């Protein structure tokens, strides 16, 4: 039986200058997978996501997303960027922010009832529908993250790419984001970038380490030596007990 991959990179090399940021990257993420990219600052994680979205073009190698080119697949990929360019004080409602995810090239500036219904469904998904008409600026950090995830969901994606979804939120909020992402993973493939190996090792089935080269590990392989390899000498050790099997993943 052939395996269905949502993300396939073969021999991808890319550099902003002559110096490559990513070198000969090979990667396959199966449909339904929950995978994470980890690695040191400047290791090329965000660059890898931008290549997957077709926002950057590889110097060598090929990228297949949802069985087609990144450009063609883009409408079926929900993307939450690392730092939202949205001014947190900008006077927009929660609904306005989610509707931004429904905007298409050449689309009108007004939104149809269908758009509004779809945006409300996404807010229900992240348990924020009662706040649809609240000002975005009045929300907590964790609620803002949820709204941005709802915006990424608004295009009804088959694949969700999240760049640092847990930055600037406290452990309790991280836990609720974690629960929410696991629920979403029942319906779509998720790839997230995170510095937080503690968070990642609880959630995902495989960890993709990016530091110019790329290595994929099952989360069960994560240990102090490997973490040092990923992040360099000075790092916080994260202990976790976690097993992966074909039937899914579970905690000891
Ligand atoms: N637009 C750009 N022009 C030139 N160099 C860039 C550009 N964007 C990123 N870089 C460089 O490419 C390298 C990889 O950057 P990237 O943002 O992909 O890393 P990252 O792993 O996401 O880092 P972080 O964890 O800090 O977000 C870095 O050395 C960065 O300085």
UniProtKB/TrEMBL annotation:
Residues 7-237 form the ABC transporter domain. One of its GO terms (molecular function) is ATP hydrolysis activity. Pfam families: ABC_tran. The keyword ATP-binding applies. InterPro entries: AAA+_ATPase, ABC_transporter-like_ATP-bd, ABC_transporter-like_CS, Metal_Ion_Import_ABC, P-loop_NTPase. Keywords: ATP-binding, Nucleotide-binding, Transport. PANTHER family: METAL TRANSPORT SYSTEM ATP-BINDING PROTEIN TM_0124-RELATED. Belongs to the ABC transporter superfamily. This is Zinc transport system ATP-binding protein.
